[in-house]
Amino acid sequence: MADPVPLADPAVLVSDLSLSYPASGGHRAYNAVEGMSTVLGRGRTLALLGESGSGKSTFARFLAGRADDSPEKSSRIRATGGDAVVLGVPLRRLRKRAALQLTAHVGMLGQDAGATLPPELNVGDILFAPIAERSKHFDRTQLGERIVEMMDIVGLPLGKLQEYPYELSKGQRQRVAVMQSLMLEPSLYIADEPTLGVDANNRPRIVDLLEWYRKRSGATLILVSHDIGMLERLGQRVLVMQQGRAVGEGDIDDIFRTADHGYVQQLAQALRASAYDEIAEA
Ligand SMILES: Nc1ncnc2c1ncn2[C@@H]1O[C@H](COP(=O)(O)OP(=O)(O)OP(=O)(O)O)[C@@H](O)[C@H]1O
């Protein structure tokens, strides 16, 4: 099995990839993604857009090397065609050990991550946890400096490091989750709706953090998001999905201006006209 190459270029290469959920409880196997192909150069940012159920999260989770990351068998994603190569590692038959090696370099912020913070840890320990899980020896001082810088960028006072998730607002929890997902300094970072549910004043702080991280690390980003403010600041390429398939891909400005696909045109109009949460939750 190939070892991950953090500086691989392209960082992500997807060819004719189809993904499905297995049959379970009387339900047939479900094809969530069909025939996707795309290439993402190192250091680039790709935004995934599309209506609810179009396969964005499935695609994102698979690319993050987390296809099997679910206690329920029925939620494990299977590649049924094609393949994706992420940081030089083919994902189609990724074994547990190889997945663990890959995920050291691929950060993933799952949907509504702020709601799944461990309730028994305070914010400081939550931030240290990804590092402590992988290594007993780490430089607390150096990490502490990084944490202070991140807390400042997202506008959280340092006193919050002693607080527990139940003491934080929803938006504060989400900011902690985003910080936590960056702690291992991933070279590929995939975030599923990082600003969803965060009030409009605090969304830019999350974008600030992602922008800071991208500049500092040169990481490649994949963002599932309809937050137009974020896409304008961070998005470079946009891939629009509908019913598991890519229906448009291009530079953020071009794709909406010149889109010839009806759904992409509709989406472009909606993004310009509506409040972000209404689209994301539609
Ligand atoms: N655990 C699962 N088991 C079976 N089918 C699933 C599972 N998770 C998602 N699906 C189905 O796969 C399809 C794609 O879902 P997915 O969550 O990837 O879409 P999405 O575009 O991210 O939607 P949303 O924006 O609502 O999160 C949907 O039809 C969904 O019902």
TrEMBL record:
<keyword id="KW-0547">Nucleotide-binding</keyword>
<dbReference type="GO" id="GO:0005524">
    <property type="term" value="F:ATP binding"/>
</dbReference>
<dbReference type="Pfam" id="PF00005">
    <property type="entry name" value="ABC_tran"/>
</dbReference>
<dbReference type="InterPro" id="IPR003593">
    <property type="entry name" value="AAA+_ATPase"/>
</dbReference>
<dbReference type="InterPro" id="IPR003439">
    <property type="entry name" value="ABC_transporter-like_ATP-bd"/>
</dbReference>
<dbReference type="GO" id="GO:0016887">
    <property type="term" value="F:ATP hydrolysis activity"/>
</dbReference>
<dbReference type="GO" id="GO:0055085">
    <property type="term" value="P:transmembrane transport"/>
</dbReference>
<keyword id="KW-0813">Transport</keyword>
<comment type="similarity">
    <text>Belongs to the ABC transporter superfamily.</text>
</comment>
<keyword id="KW-0067">ATP-binding</keyword>
<dbReference type="InterPro" id="IPR050319">
    <property type="entry name" value="ABC_transp_ATP-bind"/>
</dbReference>
<feature type="domain" description="ABC transporter">
    <location>
        <begin position="12"/>
        <end position="268"/>
    </location>
</feature>
<protein>
    <submittedName>
        <fullName>ABC transporter ATP-binding protein YejF</fullName>
    </submittedName>
</protein>
